[in-house]
Design a protein that fits this description.
The chain is α/β, with parallel strands linked by helices. The chain has a 10-stranded mixed beta sheet with strand order 6-5-4-3-7-1-8-9-2-10, with helices on both faces. A hairpin with a 6-residue loop joins strand 13 and strand 14. Helix 8 packs parallel to helix 11.
């Protein structure tokens, strides 16, 4: 174990100076801040980063994303630091690690006793935009409030644990237009609370969730008679779609029909997909057409929103981001879902377009969940408002074509319920994924994947490479040391 004080002294750094290294206040000049850009932030749930047609990694049909990528900066190495819903969303909003923003697990009734929800006291990027005269709209999945009794009377709260909860206006962090829900996985008949709805005032809609949300996003952009936003202010709109989240059966058939002539062999070429005679191999083959169908449906709805942006004459003045909160294994590595160290879980899309400002290209920058908040504020000329407690780094200058110090690693983590000093921590880059697991009453476990020579992560080589494990343990502790993670102090 590293002597942490001696290490920091040797590096000539304090914890505070390391934390603030990314929070530059002069990233953009004052004249670039004068015209405030709009922001359109679209993120489906559970869409893995390799599942976009233009990358050529999976046989998925995404014509709108393919076109959008040619107009945008694409960061194919972007990862979800904690690849599960609520922790990602809290990091996105605050730029702070889970042990700092308190969202160390999904927000559900099992974690309510730990105050596992977005804190009112935290400053989110939306709060900053609101303070700077933006109109703000949120459409879709939120999942940042702890369910409390009596639980909201809806399908996914009737059997414990309860998942869904209303977000009252004082907890919306500046969003003045609201058509959202906590988490509700009935995609063909989704439910929403409107801006002025009370806790029992939610409504159901007989329409596929992403299509319904795209319809409303298009109305928000058109803003007929000024009913959705102040037409004299810049706007920021989030469209948070639930698919391609489970259950995969809940998708319009015409999207799945696009894959009817594609053989299972072609759909299942990745060598880390289990054999067809295994439980997870069978499940993967059952779900993959529907999963791809959902992605094609999300792609179509995203294309509709982009077309509306263009038709309203807003394209040139709007930063558009497409990303996801995490990926999904669907059975790969015998893992049914996300929340693990594998590429299919961690890697997420990140595509950003700002015509005339961000040059279209692909870049292997090691971008992460935490960096989204400060980077967006930096691009929007609000780098002076990035708080000192923000853990992420602004890469606004990098996005705009300037050189800056690039990260060597991305952080991975998982926390057991109510035990922030335990769980898994790891680092990842294009060369290696290294993870250490500390679980009470269990021996420490080490996982090491050679991502260059074993890109599908079929082998854990930790026991074969003790020298490399020792080196990467040093890198892991050096990477997370500045952020006061209690995990570092847990000895097993």
């Amino acid at each position: 174990m590293i002597d942490r004080r001696r290490f920091l002294k040797g590096m000539g750094l304090s914890v505070t100076s390391v934390c603030l290294a990314g929070c530059t206040r002069d990233a953009l000049s004052a004249d670039k801040r004068r015209k405030a850009p709009n922001l359109l932030f679209v993120f489906p749930d559970q869409m893995r980063g390799s599942a976009m047609g233009f990358l050529g990694e999976e046989p998925v049909l995404t014509p709108n994303l393919d076109r959008f990528s040619r107009e945008s900066l694409v960061l194919p190495q972007t990862v979800s630091t904690y690849p599960v819903c609520s922790p990602f969303r809290a990091m996105l909003m605050t730029g702070k690690y889970p042990h700092a923003n308190k969202v160390t697990n999904n927000c559900l009734s099992l974690t309510t006793p730990y105050n596992c929800q977005l804190q009112e006291s935290d400053t989110c990027w939306s709060d900053v935009l609101k303070a700077n005269e933006y109109s703000l709209g949120y459409i879709g999945k939120w999942h940042l409030d702890s369910p409390v009794e009596p639980y909201v009377d809806c399908a996914n709260n009737r059997n414990l644990p309860a998942w869904n909860e209303w977000c009252p206006p004082h907890r919306r962090h500046g969003f003045d237009f609201w058509h959202a829900y906590g988490t509700y996985d009935h995609h063909m008949r989704p439910m929403y609370w409107d801006t002025d709805a009370k806790r029992d005032g939610f409504k159901y809609f007989d329409q596929w969730g992403p299509e319904h949300e795209a319809d409303l996003a298009i109305k928000y952009l058109a803003n007929e008679n000024g009913v959705y936003r102040d037409p004299d202010k810049p706007f920021a709109m989030v469209v948070s779609m639930n698919p391609p989240h489970t259950p995969y059966s809940q998708v319009p058939k015409h999207y799945v029909e696009r894959y009817k002539d594609v053989s299972l062999d072609e759909l299942c070429q990745r060598p880390n997909i289990p054999d067809s005679d295994t439980k997870m191999g069978t499940q993967y083959r059952r779900d993959i057409r529907n999963y791809y169908g959902m992605i094609s449906g999300v792609d179509e709805q995203f294309g509709r929103i982009l077309e509306a942006l263009k038709m309203q004459g807003l394209e040139e003045d709007t930063i558009v981001v497409f990303t996801s909160d995490h990926g999904n294994c669907l059975g790969i590595h015998h893992k049914i879902t996300k929340n693990n160290r594998y590429e299919e879980s961690m890697r997420i899309p990140f595509i950003i377009r700002w015509p005339g400002k961000i040059k279209p290209r692909q870049d292997d920058l090691l971008f992460s969940s935490l960096d989204m908040c400060p980077t967006m504020l930096g691009l929007m000329g609000l780098e002076h408002a990035i708080g000192k407690d923000v853990d992420g780094k602004s890469y606004a200058r990098e996005f705009l074509g300037h050189k800056s110090k690039r990260p060597e690693w991305q952080w991975y983590m998982w926390v057991p319920k109510g035990k922030p000093a335990w769980g898994r921590r790891g680092i990842r880059n294009q060369a290696y994924t290294f993870v250490v697991s500390k679980i009470p009453d269990k021996p420490t476990e080490y996982y090491l994947h050679d991502n260059k020579n074993d890109p599908y992560q079929l082998r854990n080589i930790a026991e074969e490479r003790p020298d490399l494990v020792k080196q990467l343990m040093f890198e892991l502790e050096k990477t997370i040391l500045p952020y006061n993670d209690p995990w570092l102090e847990t000895e097993v």
